[in-house]
Amino acid sequence: MSEDRRGRLETDPGMSLVEAVYARRSVRGYLDREVAPEMLERIFEIAQQAPSNCNVQPWKVFVASGELKNKLSAQMVQRTREGVAPNPDYPYRGDFENDYRRRQVECAVALYTEMGIERGDREGRQRAVLRNFEFFDAPNIAFIGMDPAFGTTVAIDVGMWAQTLMLTLTAFGLHSCPMGTMRNYPDLIREAFDIQDDTRILFGIAFGYEDPTVPANRTVTSRDPISTNVVFRS
Ligand SMILES: Cc1cc2nc3c(=O)[nH]c(=O)nc-3n(C[C@H](O)[C@H](O)[C@H](O)COP(=O)(O)O)c2cc1C
How far apart are CA 162 and CA 156, in angstroms? Predict the structure, then answer.
C-alpha cells in the first residue's frame, strides 16, 4: 500500500546533486564485492521518489545477484556466442544518422580505444559485446520493464526513474551502467523472475563497486554544447 514520503535520513550521504551528475558515468568493470542489502534497499527507496505521469509509478524492476545473476549471465553469453537472434519486447533502432551517428561512433571509439580494440578487430569487438552479458562482473543487475500498454509517453517516466537510481547509486559511492543490451533475451528474465503479468523488458542497469583497474573504466565521453539541444526564447 501507499507509504508516506520520509525525506532525507541522517545516514544518507551528503554528495551534492551537481557532484553526482558529473561523477556518474558508465562503468564497465566491477569489484567482486557485494552491496549491503540495507544500502540497496535505501537506494531503491530514494529512486522510488522519481516523478511519473499521474504518479502511476510504472517501473517494474527485477534485481538479480548471486547465483541467479550468474545463471542469467551464462545463458545470455551462450545465446550471444551461438548467434541466437535477439527477441526484444520493444523494438530498437540502432542505425543512427548525421550528428547522432557521429556521437555514436565517438563513444564507441572512446571505449574501444581504452579496451585496446582496433578497427577491424572482430574478435576484440565480440569480446566487448560479451562483456555486456557478463554484466561487466557487476554483483547486481537490474532489469527494468513496464506494461507496453502505456506506450512511449509513460516510458519517459521509467527513464526518469532510471536516472534517479543511477544518481543515487553514485551518491552512495557505487557505479552503474545502463544497458540496452539487456533487451535481447527477455524470455530468460521472465523465466528467472517468474514474471506472469504484462511486464515487458525495456533495458537493464548493472551496478556495484567500480574496479578502477579495468581499462574500459578510463573511458571518457563528451557532450556537445547545449546550443545543439536546447532553445531558450522569451
Ligand atoms: C538506455 C541506455 C542504454 C545503454 N546501453 C548500453 C549497453 O548495452 N552497453 C554499454 O556498454 N553501454 C550502454 N549504455 C551506456 C552509454 O553508452 C553511455 O551512457 C554513453 O556513452 C554516455 O557515457 P556515460 O554514461 O559514461 O556518460 C547505455 C545507455 C543508456 C542511457
Answer: 10
